Fold each of these.
Amino acid sequence: MSYTVLARRYRSQRFDDVVGQNAIAHTLKNAIRTDRVAHAYLFTGTRGVGKTTMARILAKSLNCLSTGEPTIEPCLKCDSCVAVNTGEDIDVIEIDGASNTSVEDIRELRGNAIYRPARARFKIYIIDEVHMLSISAFNALLKILEEPPSHVKFIFATTEPHKVPATIQSRCQRFDFANISPADIIAQLKKILTEEKIKFEDDCIIALARLAAGSMRDALSLVDQLISTGAEKLTVNMFEEFLGQPNKEKIYELLEKVGSSDAAAALVCLDALLSSGLSCIGVLDGLVESFRDMMVLKASVGGSSSLVILTQAEKNALSRIAQVFDIPALVYNVTLLEKLRWPVKNSDNPRALLEAALLRLALSEHFMSIPELLSQAGGVKAVKNTSAGSNAVRHPLAEKNTVAADSTPSPLKKQPETKVEHTQQEPVIASDADIEQIKQHWGKIVDFARLHTNARIAELLKKAVPLRLNSGTLSIGFDTSDEFSMKLCQSNGRAEIIESVLSSALGTKIKAVFGTIDNGGKAGQKPKPPGAKASKKTIDEAANTPAVRTILSELDASILDVKEEGQ
């Protein structure tokens, strides 16, 4: 006995069985109940979302022989229902628009349509990929669509509705089938695999739903492919090995190297991915997908967006890596890599293009952003970006940033992490400061670092907390959950830059050492002042108010307590 693939074996049989198209199913059921079934329908949507399945269900509902009239619950047992399921019903004619494109085919259809159905209520024509018909064939359809015999129904399905002439669409009721949500695909796959008594890892099902991209048929075809390997259990490793998908751990390692500006290590990670059998396009797709997920996580409140299809472990890993990127950088990275797809696909040396792109991303911190450029070139004003229709500043890597200067501006390329920019500004605190004073003024020290180095160094220091000062050695701690930021401080010469800027801020030679502390995930947060009744959160919110922040800065003061109005 021949094997029937899952996509056919588990094809929906009734309206309520169709996954992810509840609104369309509800509308068609109401049309049947109220006897308002149109003479022509146009079902549009991407592949594998249920267009042909819905057409067959509608045909069964209209022609089911177990009742005296159309029903929303076809019996699935009568001769008509069984024949429709197998595509052999003489009154429900399925036509492939891709292979019956000529005007002669449509003229034959019109000639047969005038005859009443042999045994059912309606003669139903289901034309799949209708957009493939020729213009002459479409024109031949117009007359019968406008004035069809009462016993004829047309159901057209297409993945490219823009290719269907407006004259045809205006004579049909159009239903746009949405991509099936990942949650629905995951639930359906688990249900089917349970019925098939096949073991699986939840993470594997999530990965399959992600790759299916909204198509239930694609998801079931992928499952069939994994089942055919003969393994007792479907796993993530199988998914990566047999479906040619990039190893997520290796992709994330590559992202970490890019984020830490370790260009040499990034090339080594790329080589490992390519050596595993992955193509350059495969690596590119993996990077674009991961940068996109980080962008969404970074933009969402608390990084808990439901817009990403990730396991909890993947979400945690990407949230951690995303800390070293800002949203504009992630937007730029996605755009750059997506634009690279066509050149890589058609190049004789795609690896070189991919390596060049990774080096560009890894070394992005060596390019100065427009705000930094303006802050260092006094009197410089940004020119309005008329092409964008706004004054928005482009990303640091934009190659055509435009400025108008009263004096010669600084070059776009800088050496931000090789040398601290020294000015005549006074140190933040005196050279004989103790650790308590450093803790109290840590925010000002971070601002000093932002002004005299770059935003990345300042953001790293902002996450840290000063611990001890002993003989000119300042111990700086990071929460154990943020060990990645600590490692960034220790790599690519950042430690020397941090020591230099701290020495300038404290007016004395400082050596920095880095470590982790277990502070309940609150590294870098000072405890509330002794005796304060307000919570640490309330004090921090007050300190970050622009007016209060200005006062604290001018008076060199700090907040001891906050009393809310009315207390």
Amino acid sequence: MKKKNKLIIFFLGFFALFLVAHFVSAQDFGVDVVDNNLGGTLGESGSDPRVLIARIIQIALSFLGLIALVLILYAGFLWMSSSGNEDKIDKAKSILKNALIGLVIILSSWAIVTYIISRFTGSLGSAINPTFNTSSSIPRVSTLGALGACTIESVYPENKQIDVPRNTAITIKFKEPLDQTSVCVNDAGDSCSCGEVISGETCNLINPQAIRIFKTELEDACIGNSCPEANANFTNVTASISQDKLSLILTPKEYLGSPSENIWYSVKLSSDLRKEGGKSMLANCQSTSFAWSFEVSSRLDLIPPQVVYGSIYPLPDNEKDLINQVIPAVAAQAKITVLNCPNVYSSSSILNIIPSTNSPEASASALNYQGDITSFLVVIPSQSKDKAQLFEAEDISNLLGVGDFDSQGNVRLGDFFIFKAPERSVGNSWIVNLKSEVKADTLTIGSYTYTFDNKTGGNNISLPVNCNSAAAADAIYIGLSGDSLVDVLKENNSIVLRSKIAGPDGNNIKLESSSLGNLQIEPFSGGVSRDASVKLNDQKDVPMNTVLQLNFNEPVNPLQIAGLSSEVASFIRVVNYEQNSKGDGVTCFSNSECKSYNCSGTDQDKKCVGDYLPGKFLVSNNYKTVEFISDKECGVNGCGEKIYCLPASSHLAVELRSADLKVCESDDDCLALSPFNKCLPSDLGYTTCQNSENRNYPIAKLDSVGANGIIDLASNSFDGNRNKFSEGPLDYYNDNYIFSDSSNNNKRDNYRFSFYVNDQINLTPPKITSISPAQNKRGVALSEDIKITWNTLMMNSTLKTGQSMVDTGKSKVAHKLVNLMGSNISGLGYWISNDNNDTDLDGEPDQTISWIKHSELLEAMTYRVQVGSGVRDIYQNCFKPSDGEGCTGVSLEHPSCCFGEATDILNSDGSCQ
């Protein structure tokens, strides 16, 4: 190779690797900004140094690539113009070859740079192809790693959301309960529990060290844990925490933004924010802080929230279905007959060692041998006393192994035992009698496996030491009592298992045992569906295990709608809607007579308990969905989780209360509320600020505990009759009569709808019908959301990130939810949003579409979406990841589905490898 060409390759390679080495040697990978004053050539003033360095490397490598391209073109020109001259052709070939080698080095350097940046910074997205902002009003960097993958489930406004009203509260949904003393301070700046009254003052100001709100352009005025008293951050902000301590609502006392321009704001949570127990909320997250940004517009939100009619489930139903002939469902049954006592674990052991004549005493230690041979012959061969041969004692032609003695006289003989004979001679031999290891027998029901043992606890079925078939049958009966899937009945030496849920699904319950010689298994069979002749009247009556779901047109304040029925009954409740249903404390004879469906007491003195159904209300979908789940246990789903039912054959109603409106005393109180400038009497019995059309100012009356009805995040009172105005809690607008105007005249702004429940349980699991982007798709846009389409309506409160712990009654099992993972560690933030669709255009929602939203993805990286069995449909049935059109070859041997293919190989946490 000519000297000149060698110099070309050397120059290209050395310069590329120098850039990599220089980048690695720069030890500061922090997020402190750098003012480079380069006029936007490499990045604006205040750019992240990682982005700046990456941009320099990108420009340099692009320059080298251009040189390589010029050399290739030059070589081509020489070749084309050589006119057959061999010297020119050879020269062109040489330049072309060397240019290509240089190009390979450049591309390799690019790959090395990509890898190093991604490993050291976790922020490769902006480093590979950084996007620099042209306006200082747009946020530059958001640390979102805790969102989705760690302790934060969602935020509102969302990251990079624009046109946010000035009077909107900021909300954060956590996965673990908050320590309230880390959230709030009093007027003196001392930490205290949110809502606590001290010397007549309510503790509700945000702790500025833990929670920081600031204009993005001005940046955070606090440095580390030090916040100067006078700074540009917004600290005049109240904090409220939901009953479950999972939702934090931040309400600025003065509106954010400006009436004349849009302004970007950022919210930052520091490591000072703690969870219950005192540990930092961000302790196990990738970053010790969490921040996101959004744009506040110049407008105020004065539009009240509504329930979306076509997005409630079940739909209003005015007439119960007529059921004629009924053939009840039959539960599947199985049987276990005990023939002999199952095996419990016992280790392999040496029974005795018998030396031959003139052979010395020896010892041995058993290994984990499980074979049938129990008597062995150890021989020192004539060739060497440092070797040992192992034979089957009863068949000395069967050589089982050979080993070498170590300096202490030990020799390992296969997986049978370790033999020790320090004093030995050629020709010595010993008979070794051994008891094989016995593995414990197991019994599997569904996804739960029981182990036979002489000890109690865990998943053991405890057998007596002196065991026989009758004692074993008793032990199995006791051990299976309380199983989440089956009821048990003992018949002599047999145990009859009956599925807790009637119907054909019980036929699919797995029943297996490793003790086939001791236990005779008859698998589940005989489960039959309920058969009934039903005449539909109006809407179809819903199954008992239905979860009630209401979707709002905008986020609502969770303080009024999230929690146990007893905690939010003043705002939202589910009641018996039969005309003569009785309230709390009234004498009753059956549950169906009571508003609460709870008639309790002695036979001589029974009374209704409560005025509403017990259960809990769950808020999800970024505070736009509220769901009610009963607390009456009625069976289990296909994953062994408990399911809960509404009263059978019942007529129920959901009732929501609107909040009282802000009161005024004179027109002076309304001057700043244009166009609601007049203080006038209202139908509510008090004066309110009104406009020229006598419409009320929509903001709710707030006291120390908040509003007395449902409000949105801008404190607008709920609009029950959907006329776009807040009229307060006058009467119940009934959605059952939405098309009958006369029935709803003057019914505002409380809200109600009613429906019927049948006596059936729906146990059909949900399936995914499509995912976009598709499996293994390349070239996906960095901002593209992931779309998951379901075949049915889903329970939105389970469509969230992370995992859920399910108590099967025997143990707690982690069930994965919805997660987005990269092939490398990064600061990716992601959250879930859901929409309901009416696919058959019958007016009732029947399909959910889930969207995984995220911060910008990173180039040249593979991402994986995980949807696990913690996700449930509207009937509480768990999603089975292996059960769908997108997976092939699923069987008992390969029960899991990873990347479209059946497998039995998973990571230790149950995730796909």
Amino acid sequence: MLRRTLAHAALLAATSAPALGAQDFGIRPHLNWQTVHTEHFVFHFPAEMRAWTLSVAERIEPIHAAVEAIVGFAPPQRTTVVVEDPLNLPNGSAYPIIGAPAIYLWPTPAEPTDHTGNSRTWGEVLAVHEFAHVAHMSRPTRNPMRRLLWKLLPGEIGPIARKAPRWLYEGYATYVEGKLTGSGRPHGAWRPAVLRQWALEGQLPTYAQLDATGGYKAGSMAYLAGSAYLEWLVARSGDSSLVHLWRRMTARQNRSFDAAFAGVFGAPPAVLYGRFTAELTGKALRIEEELGPDTTARGEIVQKLAWYTGEPALSKDGRLMAIVLRTRDRPSRVVVWRMDEPDTAAQRKLREARERLVERDPEDVPAVQPYPLPKRAVATLRPVAGRAHDDPRFFADGKRILVSRFEPRGDGSVRPDLFEWNTDTKRLRRLTRSGGLRSADPSPDGRAAAAVRCLNGICDLVRVELATGRVEVLAAGSPTRYFHRPRYAPDGRRIVVGVQDFGTPWRLALVDASGGTLHLVGPLDGVNRHSPTFSPSGDSLVYVSERGGIPNVETLDLRTGGTRPLTRVTGAAYAPEPGGRGVYFLSETARGLDLRLVAPSPAPSAELALSAALAPAAPVPPQRADTFARGQLSAPRPYGIGPHGYRWLPGGAVSTEGAFATLLVGSSDPVGRLGWALQGAYGEPSTWRGGALGAEWRRFRPELQGELFYVEHSPSRQEAGTFAPPSLDVEYAGATVGAQLTRNFGARREVYRIGASVGRLRADTGRRQRRQLAFAEYGGGRAFIRGTRFLSVGVDLHGALGTTGDKVAGGPAGDWRRALATGRLAVGQRNRSLTGAVTYGSVSRDASPLEGFVVGGVRSPLADPAILSQRIPAPALPVGIVAGRELYAYRLTLDLVFPLDLYYAAFGTRGGFRDPFRVVGAERSVAIPTLAFLRLPSTRAQAGVAYTLDAPFKHKTRGYFSVEYRP
């Protein structure tokens, strides 16, 4: 899965949220949401995902009972479950906040080659895994004092969530998924394939590396090695040992994880893990010995590759291969290689380099060349706007290639669509829109493509007319029926596809290209068979078979029904592609996936059957687990404004103008349709004080916003000096309404906003004045990405007009207009960047002094920034250090992946930058959108230190910190 629960992330989210970074759950509140309740759960889901959600909900109560029985605990409160499909990928996460547990499910199913692809059904294994997290980590402490202290915080996190390493909670949820479903990663062929191959290469992670997330499949080791390690511990110490560990971790006596672990298993976790890996390596070596010394069935290496290589595709004549190359540090790309002739230029360079080496030192020994030289790409398709391409398949002419690419839809979601890449003209033409299409294969005549369409958790086998993009369903999927990787027969009359129904293995099926009934082919032996394609002759199929416990390439004769293996690898074989001299396939290694070629002759005839005693280097035999019984559900009802949860959060700021603290009490529903926040601020008179009640209604696009506020601000009383005249001291009460539309297209983002405000203010004169205004804002940006380098441009525009004060007889003295524009340019590579921003602002001449630009201090946490756009925040500077009816400003920011960004800024008023006020500093800012799923408002945190360069506040060093919230 792409992302799993992090207990410490839940801890940070429940308390203050800034450390989460710019995480966005992708929930779209404007959809037509519905709700269904069970005894222990409440599901919220878009109407189009109703079928998938109800298939999970009707089995969730037996899942709850089974998980509670094995974990030994379950939260007494109802668990909130939100189902959404923002990225059209398989995933899930759990948030074990005591008193408010929650689960987030993405319904798109895993493919059979995924570690999670071995399951009776995706919804079942996902629900078991995520609720295991909730039941496991929401167990409260039995220490009364610690429990009281946590109850005083905004969110209560249990000791297991706080103390457990990542491998423990991810490994345990994986362990539970295997125990309760009889399938999942513990019983599949992919977990032992990875562990076995890593062990044979001496690359199993050390205990210190077990929690790592970087490196090839390093992030998966917490699930794979973690669950296998827990099984090993249970085999040594008994089934109750894990529950004893949870009890020790939550006991009245405070213990570290290592101490709790050693008290159950007799030694620290790192020590026993060392023994576990030693035994695992021994079992892997025994399996390698069983496979025999003959390496021909493992295939010859065509290219030594690394990282997550995509599936290879051959042109019809076998002369060209298209393949997706991925690396850790570079964006993935589709390359085309020539397979019918060697790269003579590369061979010549290698030969000449060897000759020069020996010529310079006759006793030197040139290095051996153990692998074929890297192939030279004759065509390359690079990412477009940072979005890479996948699933290449040749058209019959060998010049055009069908590819897919995930495309943003503007509402925060993405879907894969099909494109035609012409390698001669270099043209890339889009064929479909919002299709959710993957693994597409063009027909021999090039008019159509067979593909799998996954939308809302349902994956159908479809036919796509490439000229129009029209989609026709050939075989309907369901919440418990999935399809994978369709391929046309050479004559175009049939399609082969992998299919799985609830509780059955993956099987191969044939269907007429124009539609009709699926015909299952292959043995009925309970073995997973998937990733099929036709042989060039069309009379047999080539596919991946997990027979014997290792994923290998196998063939099926369509006339006789006989099968024979083609490979016998030590790890796993992926993505067979027949043609040329044999069958190409990808082979698992600890560095990535190598491209290999095996001759069409069969592998050794002795049937492969790994002993269960060699687990986890061999698969754990599937268990006969009871199917979770389907229960009766009440009819789903409209979501409305949803159930509301509450949270309080502290905030505030410390800056040169002074210090103040804020307290927020807020509420939101799980999908963020309606959120409100009541805030109060109190501190030094020179800072912002007062209160505000704000709300956002996101049922529609654009979303509606509104707030009532009262603020006091007396910058003339700041201790830094008399930079702000008493005329800037103000008491201001009013109301603001607005509407905002956000459109996100990946590398391009647009935000439109309009609004109005009315209010009354009292300035230093003591006389109340009215203030009313209307504003319009636009923020947009575009990134241009090439490889690891990028250039981005952006602009923020703000315009407002209004009246401040009472009009005098004979003229509109109180009317004003204000414009503010900022342009941004950023260049960078990977995590390093240099950003420049230039700002210009102007206020009409007849405006009240209160409407002039004022630089310094922090922005008000209580009033909408759009109605105080004349206040330019600069927390290291006193309020009023620069003031006037015009504003000139620029800022250079250097991000070198240090904890803080370095910046240089200058501010000027009339006269531009001839006499600016300059400041240098280092800071870190974090902006987090509203996380309604966790009942968290929009949050902005900033911390830094700065040094001033110019009078009248010269050579001053000031630190600052602020946390502010918006509904």
Amino acid sequence: MDTAVFGREAELVEVAATLEGARHGFTALVLEGDPGIGKTTVWRTGIASAAGRGYRVLSCRAVQAEARLSFAALGDLLAPVEPEAFDALPVPQRRALDAALLRADAGGAAPNPRAIGTAIVTLLSALAALSPVVVAVDDIQWLDLPSARALEFAFRRLEARSVAVLATLRLGVRSSGSGLLASGASDRIRALRLGPLSLAALYRIVEERLGRKLPRPLLVKIERVCGGNAFFALEIARALPPSGSPAGGEELPIPGDLSQLVADRLRKLPQRTRDALLRVSALPQPTLAVVDAAALAPAEEAGVVRTGADGRIELAHPLFASAIHASASRERRRRLHAELAETATDVEERARHLLLASAPEQDDERVAAVLHAAAEHALRRGAVEVAAELAEQSARLTPAAQADLRWQRQLRATRHHLKAGDPRRSRALCEAVLGSAPGAAVRAEALHLLAEAQISERPAGAIPLLEEALVCAGDDFVRAAQLEVALGMVHSSLFDLAESFRHLGGAIELAERAGDSALLAEALAMNEVARIVSGNGFDERALERALALEDVEREVLFQMRPSFNAAAAYEYVGRVDVARPLLVKLRERLVARGEEADLPWALINLAVTSYLAGAFERAEQEASEAERTAALTGGEIFRAFALMVRGLVRGVRGNASGAHADAVEALASSERLGWRKGVADARFALGLLALSEGDPAAAVDVLEPLLTWIEAAGVYEWPIAMAVPDAIEALVATGALERATRLTQALGDSGRRFDRPWALATSGRCEALLAAAAGDLDRALAAAERALVAHERLPMPFERARTLLVKGQLQRRHGERRAGRATLSQALASFEELGAPLWAERARAEIARIGVRRAPAELTESETRVAELATEGLTNPEIAARLFMSRRTVEANLARAYRKLDIRSRAELGATMAKRETATRS
């Protein structure tokens, strides 16, 4: 510890509490305050305390000169970590971090920035498993953007790890690191503002640092001027004459502007020393190897700089840097940066110096070329934000006479901004290129990039851009194929299936002509998904070919990846056993690479496969993880999809309130986004919930818009028509038999046409319900038997249990009491094993109706149920549909109930049944 700490006892207590809290999970404390208030002193004391507790400390002091370099702070933080810890990382994460920190050659594909953040999560988690870790960052407002983004990513994912963050933040400065630890982000992140020091603390500080004991009247004057700021108090005390106080009645011999005080102090140093200090302020990591130690010595004696044992030079306070910079003329600074550019070994640092040395608004291809090389270097390290800025500066300095080169560099910057998550800036640069009337090839690329920037915000707006780009592509088959794939994807997302299918067919032809196997794989796999959802079948050999041609290292939108679309296609046709392993591999690859923005896609579809396979608990966990990840990455459409799946699963598992909340939120988000598929799926979840709760009328109401759309589309494949079987069951229960018959026929025809076990099994169950409603129990039982045969090829146990429930009901009505009990018991066992309590209760109720005998004067179970539904206002046909009876059977049950209850009308029935219920309760 450099010096004693005075007047900060309360702050040190907070630091200690933060360090202790790290034993129980992630915690952070940000020390905020004005320059010179003492943040760094408390920070250093905290570091020493952490080391004394046996914690692992990783620290860095960010400086303004490094704020625009790539991973400067992260390199300092991780420098002490043993090589073995890096070697233990998953290979994609280790490669990404090695590239970012220049631990290995940065050649090859650029690492995903999220892979770097994921690597930090993995690394800190491993270190924290051995002992609590303290990540200490001084002046986070000066963090370079790539380091800030990587650390922000990591800190939001370390909730359960023994990691403490201790940081300082200068108030009034906005930069990349300022929001790194926003106090509202988590209840484990706190901000503590350091206020002015007391008079007693200032006295002790001046005495300890300067060896001077100031009289109280003088100290009061100093305190009034410095506002309790320790740094300013020391500077004022230094400015006092050796004799002590000024003459009676005179003001303190200092200027009113305290920043000027610092400048005055620096002016007292020799010119040679000031020149050395200017070099120190301009270098990101100054050392005695590049700065004249003899020239710097007076500054060190005056307490302006400190030199470490390793030769690194550090300004005693950030205010010195700004004062040194301001003291030099613009021309002097430009000459210095030109000189430093010649000696810089890092290409990014050299580019920055050249940029600062160049004349403003003047084209310079030499500088532009260096900036371009620096941008590519930053990209290979995973610092995509830095790459975007450098590439944009490179385009700006490219001479107007080299228009094509300028456009290409600007489009390169556009792609970097898009990858960095700034579609607005990307769009602005694209529009600037298009406004310059470039040639067709450049125009096609600019339009394509502009469309990519639009897709995430307004998919429909991307279509005219892609179509115009396609015209501009001409004979460039690769570009044209890429555009056709993009058009196919956008039209598919908008459920314009015919157009999607048309464009993807064109993409396959163009990719074949271009000989681009990776692009062909993407077009083939997406085309098979489009074929399924447009009702045009499924070619498994084409999917197998796509998977064989896939380039897993190719950088492409996740929803275009062949392995993802192949998994989706297998999921859609009920081949869960094939879909899930593909999705598991995708998830593992995404996690290892840190591609978290795409992770919800894999997790959501994994949750769907778990739901279909009857693993409801696992499905809910995967959907919840998808929702959490989507919330972290800001993917509203992903979050809506995850909520829908979770709502669906929660409804089946009996959590009706949670299911309803999830599905309603998913529906609202999907409607706001204009996402038709999301709206349909959310309505499916709400419809199944209503049916599970025994409210078929509500199910019909919520599914009605979806049925209208499905009937208009004429597609009865699972991803489109998943709600149709539930809708048919609800329609039968509410007496809408004609429409139920039409839908059942269409579903069955689709199943037979494409040999889809799901459609065959569920349409068979629906046929049984319709036949039972018509009173033809023999035909109903035969349909149920056919459905169960189809279920043998369908790995969806929940659907099979529902068909068993229907068959057991039919057997009971047919007089096959023993067989009915056995079938219903089988359904009950399945529902209980799956964890579907609402449906298990329905099976128990059906079993209870078998073999119950009552005295002649009592109502039978069937008579009671018919009478109860009649009192609710249901008509005889509606009661027949609800209870799987013929209308004649309902009438007979009501007649017997009237006779036993000695009543003659429905008006009397309601009052009599209410009295019976009251008597039963009492």
